[in-house]
Amino acid sequence: MMWWGGDWNWGAWVAMTLTMLGFWALVIWAVANFVRTTGTGRARDAEDILAERFARGEIDEDEFQHRRELLRGRR
Predict the structure, then answer these.
(1) Nearest-CA neighbor of 71 among 49, 52, 53?
(2) Among candidates 39, 59, 41, 62, which has minimal Cα distance to 51?
(3) How far is residue 37's CA from residue 29's CA, in Å, rounded to a whole number?
C-alpha cells in the first residue's frame, strides 16, 4: 500500500535535512572535543616554562642561564 502517491512530502525533507545537520554537527563536536582533551597540541617543554618564568620576572638572568644550562646538560 502506498500513501500519498509514494513520494516524500516537504515535512520529510525538512526532517531529513535537520537530522543530517545534527548528525554532522555532533561528529564535528566529538572530534574537536577529543582533540582538545587528549592534548595533541605542542607540548610545553622545560625550557619554554623557564623562558616564561624569566619573561614574567620570576627569576633573574643569571638564574635563567644557570637553569637552562642544567637542562641542556652542560653542568
Answers:
(1) 49
(2) 59
(3) 12
Half-sphere exposure in the Cβ direction for 54 (13 Å, CA): 15
CB-facing half-sphere around the CA of 21: CA atoms within 13 A:
6
State how far the Cα of 69 lies from the Cα of 34, in Å rounded to an integer.
Answer: 37
pTM, full prediction:
0.45
Distance between CA atoms of residues 51 and 67, nearest Å: 10
How do the pLDDT tens digits run along the chain, 75 residues long? 456 666 778 888 899 999 999 999 999 999 998 888 776 555 568 888 999 999 999 999 999 999 999 988 875
- Look up residue 63 and give its amino acid: E
Length of the chain: 75
Determine the Cα–Cα distance for residues 8 and 16; give it in Å rounded to an integer: 10
